[in-house]
Design a protein that fits this description.
The chain has twelve helices and six strands. The model has no long low-confidence stretch (mean pLDDT 93). Helix 11 packs antiparallel against helix 12. By secondary structure, the chain is α+β, with helices and mostly antiparallel strands. The longest helix has 22 residues. It is globular, with a radius of gyration of 21 Å. It has two domains: 142 residues, Beta Polymerase, domain 2 (2-Layer Sandwich); 115 residues.
Length: 270
Amino acid sequence: MTEKQFETAKRIADRFAQLDIVHTVAIAGSVKSGFGNSQSDIDLYIYPIRDLTMDERNQYAEVDAIGRQIIDFWGSSDNWIDAISGVEVDAMYFTTAWIEEQITRTLERHEAWMGYTTAFWHTIQISEILFDRRGWFAALQEKANQPYPDVLVQNIIKQNYPLLRDIRSSYKQQILKAVKRQDWVSLNHRIAAFLASYFDIIFAVNRRPHPGEKRMLEFTAQCEKVPENMQTDIENLLGASQNESETEMLIENIIDRLNLLLKSEELYPN
């Protein structure tokens, strides 16, 4: 993270800290994951005890903001260019109760999703605190800095592995059907879902919280335990000709090699 990015983030955090209902402002995203650069935007996570009203967001997000956009499609967030530094800002608003539930779901109930199971856990772990009223986020971060639960590994595999090819409506079958009917939009969608579950398993095997949807191959390159030929197989699948037999062979190779990894780690999927 550059000095300019940090100073911008701290100035905005100090502004939101004036709101009594805001417990914490933290920075995460690419500038904290190791893949950011001087051109990266900054991801600010603002944690109030209740949802901010639009008047409250307007009051604090519009200061020194150029081209602010309200982006509430995937949850409450604002995007703008900081007029002082020129840095692009993504501000996301998660209530304290909501993010606490994500950590409880993952680290206490060990619930698995279909892909991205531990992404919020990762966000908490890598976050740098800019403001923390009464140490609430520091306590949450301490809770998040614990070993990866073995039962969570098993639950992620149990939830995601059958979706790859074992069930009748598996991603493999959906992909092949899309190729057969030359439905390229559906093909793209189903390959994305296949890879989401696949990478969820890879990160679980390595006991690493999932870093999110970007730079998957770069992040898995940092993992010690990966299937043989993984990067090449994934790249071949993404660049495959729209041929059913070729696509099926590529998927079979990917799953067979994943299966070998799971068996070597005594994490039997079946």
